[in-house]
Amino acid sequence: MAQTTSLSGITAIIIGVGYGGLSASIELALKGADVQVFESYPDMTKQGDVIQVPANATRLMSRWGDVLSQTVKESALPTVLAIQNKDGKLLLDQQLHTEFGGFPNIYSHRGRIQKRMYDEAVKHGVRVNFGAAVTEVFEEGDSAGVIVGGVKNTADVVLASDGVHSRTRGYVTGAVERPKKSGFAVYRSWFPLSQLQNDPVTKPIYESKKDLFQIWIGENTHAILTTNRALQTATCFVTHKDLSDVVEDWNLPGDVQDMLACVEGWDPVLRHIIQSIPPECLIDYKLLWRDPVPKWVSNGGRVCLLGDAAHPHLATSGTGAAQAIEDAATIAVVLEKLGKQNVPIALKSYEKLRYERTSLTQRMGWETRHVWHQTDWNAVASNPDFLKLPQPAWLLGVDAVDYAEENIEAVKSHLLDGAPFQSKNVPPGHVHEDWNIEMMLSHEGKKVDEDFYKTRE
Ligand SMILES: Cc1cc2nc3c(=O)[nH]c(=O)nc-3n(C[C@H](O)[C@H](O)[C@H](O)COP(=O)(O)OP(=O)(O)OC[C@H]3O[C@@H](n4cnc5c(N)ncnc54)[C@H](O)[C@@H]3O)c2cc1C
């Protein structure tokens, strides 16, 4: 095992205050690094709605002061996922794992968690600059940096958590590519649960003593309802085909009538829920994607991608935020283990420890959606479990810190001496295969053989 060193001599610049940037800030600052963050938004009022934070992420968050304990108090902890067809006929009551290793699978509010993470980062000395768009990234000698407002800022390392639209990604990979349309969009709403109180059709949802998680599936479309008793809120999403040219924006208003049109003739309960959504609580969110890319570290070795900048996930994976948090924890470990004088090899180790896992979790989002949108009703008739939301132990039961600590020497030998290295944070026996969006889109609208799926349990 490598000698443990502190990060007290290391300076880091982080781009973005999403979950990737904030978790990296906390992880590095907790180990003593000097961390400065640049965020283009003027503040954190662009908050989003519900976000799923599974056990592999809450395990890491549990080390951040009271961030997790406070978050749990305002989270939904559903025990069952009710999967129904479009008429509302129950196909499967999936009993959900509510925890792994004592760490909860929670559904909470993105903005509230983000604010707690921000406060924790600041408490540990992280300096966050809002309204500070990074216009250029550079490397020179033993340092890397960013240009903000024409001013050069340098550090030992630049961590680019600049989201799905990442500009740093082009700097790192050398390829000029933009996020691609996934062909789908989601009407997303987050509204007071009391909206469901006065309609007799939706009243039972309002009165339920449990956090509800329900899904309706139909061809090329699915709808999701979640309720959060602690916050007295509900969310209703409809994912549907979309061929428009508008790009992803978390603030694009949606239209309730358009949302209803996507589920014409579906279960009246779902339609009544949608009719209860206050117009100002609905957004129309276009789902964007990027191909998995194996290169996350710049040629100079001091700039790396993390979170959605490296691997944007579809919402149906339920693990985009968690993978960003795992990235952050891994970076902190590799920098600590290999030290300031070995930043390039440390970041390459991070990439090796993470790429095959996230390539698979990105694919999981497409696979789950495909199972729900192109349902093989014969397979479902003989085994309704086919429809399950995957909650595999290889994903939710892993401690990214332990994994990085246990594998850093083997990865280093792999990178420096060509020793074989086999990822173990993937399903047992999994053999990595590269894939891209075009390949997946070619299967859109068609059933695929069961062995095409790599992430079904
Ligand atoms: C406003 C918003 C709302 C969201 N709401 C939800 C939600 O409700 N549910 C959900 O599941 N997921 C949501 N997401 C996505 C989710 O947060 C991410 O998929 C996941 O957590 C990974 O986070 P990330 O830090 O990699 O990326 P992001 O959360 O996208 O954060 C990237 C950050 O980088 C900043 N940035 C980008 N370019 C620059 C630049 N050049 N200079 C400085 N800063 C830059 C962006 O402003 C942004 O704050 C939302 C994302 C955003 C930006």
From TrEMBL:
The record places domain FAD-binding at 12-357
MF annotations from Gene Ontology: FAD binding; monooxygenase activity
Entry's InterPro entries? FAD-bd (IPR002938), FAD-dep_Monooxygenase_BioMet (IPR050493), FAD/NAD-bd_sf (IPR036188)
Name of the featured protein: FAD-binding domain-containing protein
Query: What does the sequence similarity comment in the record state about its family?
Result: Belongs to the paxM FAD-dependent monooxygenase family.
Q: Which residues form a coiled coil?
A: none
> Which Gene3D superfamilies is this protein grouped with?
FAD/NAD(P)-binding domain
Pfam families the record matches = FAD_binding_3
Keyword line? FAD, Flavoprotein, Monooxygenase, Oxidoreductase
